[in-house]
Amino acid sequence: MAQLPEGITELLHHEQLPVPLIKCHNVVILTATNVAELDLQWHCLIDSLKSNGDLVLMAPFVSKCLTTTLSDVEVAQPLSKLCLQFPDIYIGGYRGSRKGPLMIRFEGKDLSRIEAASQSLCQNFQPGAFSETE
């Protein structure tokens, strides 16, 4: 049995857990010894926080990826302008390998804004210059 500091420790009980989780100030200690236990403890923690109203769920991030054979130099300036037009969207470019296609990733919370940003980029180039990938 672990010795816990008095007065600042709270035990978080859940009906699915044989042993309560330990909360010390704003730190929750998961005592799992394997992946299955960790998954169970994590889901119980999330469930407890949701039921208490302590956890506010936010919109998940969504992403879109375009690939192109255009050079980095050709795409750089339009991407810079796009970042200024869509400050709420993370826009990044990278290559999977030295000779591979350039991948442009759009990430954010609003799918319509991501679609608008990707369409805006495609309009700066010839049709078919970009293709959508996973």
TrEMBL record:
InterPro entries attached to this UniProt entry: CinA (IPR050101)
Top-level taxon: Eukaryota
Protein name (Swiss-Prot/TrEMBL): Uncharacterized protein
Organism: Solanum commersonii
